[in-house]
Amino acid sequence: MKFGVVRFPGSCDEVDALLACRRYGEAELLWHGDRDLNGVDAVVIPGGFSYGDYLRVGAIARFSPVMDAVSEHAASGGLVLGICNGFQVLCEAGLLPGALLPNDGLRFLCRQVEVEVVDPDTPFTRACEAGQVLSVPVKHTSGRYYAPEEMLGDMEAHGQIILRYREGCNPNGSVADIAAVCNPEKNVMGLMPHPEHAVHPLTGSTDGGCLFESLARHADSLAAA
Amino acid sequence: MKARVLIRPKEGILDPQGQAVERALPALGFEGVSEVRVGRMVELEVQDPSRMAELCERLLANPLIEDFEIDLDRPEDHS
């Protein structure tokens, strides 16, 4: 199982993501200017401020050469995980439904939150149980997930809501307490919380590890089949 | 040709920036101001304005959350 973590100008969580991936498989950094994914099984788009968040968060990064390769990878069923700014990039690129708006309180948030696993039957959550509560940090200014009502209905119907903030834990005003969504094919997922910052006991929680473990298990089961 | 694109949050979408501005106004003695919405303006110099709408939809605005208006400054307006 090999992970590839994309580094954009302005990324800042790519090294933590790389180290988190390495706990569960092989991992290497990919450069935003390359069109080649070096044969990785799963691509991680990390957090940060790609292209300085100019215009809108994630708006410019989607035009990076590497994103063509990521779109092709996703279209052929390859796994893609977007964390925080990576989630914003995937929404802007049209690989995930919806958009991320400025937090309802307008402030930058940096705190531990609890999220609940809605669906453990995805490549991203298969190491979790339904209803399992994960303690992971958020740190963002634009994390308010939004999708129009009709789109939300479709997403619910297709089981595309994967994580929700626990009741009373919604930090940013996200619609329906949504913390993570996936595409209808369930091979692309984005989330605002940072699982890569919660994989070592030193940081107070290791709950984020199960998402990386899920991806590794999924890729290994495909390889064994 | 000079073009201006006015981008604003779609109706019904919470605009906390607008709310913050609205809350600040009474402290300066500006009473009776409501429905403040904050957007942004992009100025461009374009040779061919025929693709401006596409340009706005693909990059300058996110049509899911934002509306945009294009204002073209045609040279004949000044004659």
Itemize the secondary structure elements and their pairings.
The complex is a heterodimer of chains A (225) and B (79).
Chain A lengths: L1 E6 L6 H9 L3 E6 L10 E4 L19 H11 L3 E5 L1 H8 L6 E3 L7 E9 L15 E8 L3 E3 L2 H9 L3 E5 L12 E5 L5 E4 L17 H16 L1
Chain B lengths: L1 E8 L6 H9 L15 E6 L6 H9 L5 E8 L6
Antiparallel strand pairs in B: 1-2, 1-3
Structural description of this entry:
The complex is a heterodimer of chains A (225) and B (79). Chain A has a single domain, classed as Class I glutamine amidotransferase (GATase) domain (Rossmann fold, 3-Layer(aba) Sandwich). In chain A, a hairpin with a 5-residue loop joins strand 10 and strand 11. In chain A, the strands form two sheets. Chain A has a nine-stranded mixed β-sheet with strand order 2-1-3-4-11-10-9-6-7, sandwiched between helices. Chain A has a two-stranded antiparallel sheet with strand order 5-8. Chain A contains five helices and eleven strands. With 225 residues, chain A is α/β, with parallel strands linked by helices. Chain B is α+β, with helices and mostly antiparallel strands. Chain B has a single domain, classed as Phosphoribosylformylglycinamidine synthase subunit PurS (Mth169, Chain: A, 2-Layer Sandwich). Helices cover 23% and strands 28% of the residues of chain B. In chain B, strands 2-1-3 form a three-stranded antiparallel β-sheet, with helices on one face. Chain B is elongated, with a radius of gyration of 16 Å. The chains are: A alpha/beta (225), B alpha+beta (79). The interface between A and B is medium-sized, with 17 and 10 residues.
